[in-house]
Amino acid sequence: MMDTDIPVENNRTEVENKEPSLHQESLGSFLRRERLKKGLNLQEIADGTCISITTLRVLEEDDTNRMPADVFVRGFLRLYAEQVGIDSGVVLKMYARSKRESGQGGQEDQTEANDRKGVPDRTLSDRFGKIIVFIILLAVLGLLAFYLVDPSFRHSFFNG
After folding, report:
1. Higher pLDDT, 119 or 87
2. 3-class SS letters over the chain
3. I want to staple 60 with a disulfide (CB 3.0 to 4.6 A). Which of 15, 28, 49, 72 is the partner?
């Protein structure tokens, strides 16, 4: 009896890792099917991953209008897959494919490509410049306030 159990487990793993069958099924349907196959409910997934049940439903319903930012979705999908015991690589490939098919992948794919090439993010440098200007402004205002409040500083400042 043990000999028959081992091939069944191996066959299940091979079936789960085959992507051609996944092309016909949406990511949310696949996640729901795998969760139910393992006998898990959404509350158990939420408890194990600290992802809200509302977000889990959004993922399983493929509700792209209510999904959070892409970086969060990928993280949630990775945690979900680990909790259910499925290959997170397959899940993330399905997510990328669904984004490409829906036409949503263009901008974020370019951002990821720039990150790999080492292209600087203009918004980061712009933000850094604004922070520097803010710090300098605070320093000037601090000196001005100190000058106005402390008469000995005023005297030593002008008389050297």
Report:
1. 87
2. CHHHHHHHHHHHHHHHHCCHHHHHCCHHHHHHHHHHHCCCCHHHHHHHHCCCHHHHHHHHCCCHHHCCCHHHHHHHHHHHHHHHCCCHHHHHHHHHHHHHHHCCCHHHHHHHHHHHHCCCCHHHHHHHHHHHHHHHHHHHHHHHHHHHHCHHHHHHHHHC
3. 28
